[in-house]
Amino acid sequence: MRVPAEEKVSRALQLLMAAGGRTLSVKEATDIIELVTKVPENIKAVIARGLAEGLIEREGGRLVIVEKGRPGKWGFDYPGRVRKACQDHCIRCGRRITSCHYIVLEDWQVGPLGSECVKKLRLG
Known about the structure:
Blueprint: H1 5-17, E1 23-25, H2 26-33, H3 40-52, E2 56-59, E3 62-65, E4 80-89, E5 96-105, E6 108-113, H4 115-121
Helix pairs in contact: 1-3
């Protein structure tokens, strides 16, 4: 099933909001967004929408993900993380993994991710 571009933008923004309260470089934000979409236009749309809705603020060359305060304040919930035994490859780095991590947000999940990539992204 193909996910429409607007849905990918919404999902990527939701995933990015899981980093609430953090200041990220554009590269770090892009790393998170690319878990959902690698299309440059969609990546720009995620950041533009976040800025327009007040979910992201610019601070020099960095992006401040607005602190949500409590789950649901912006309509997003904090992510959960599920770990399962597997034989797969990390969607971020491509490494072969035997312990798959999935970031769970509402009714969808992102993964599989290796433990190192989950640590680097600091999600879930």
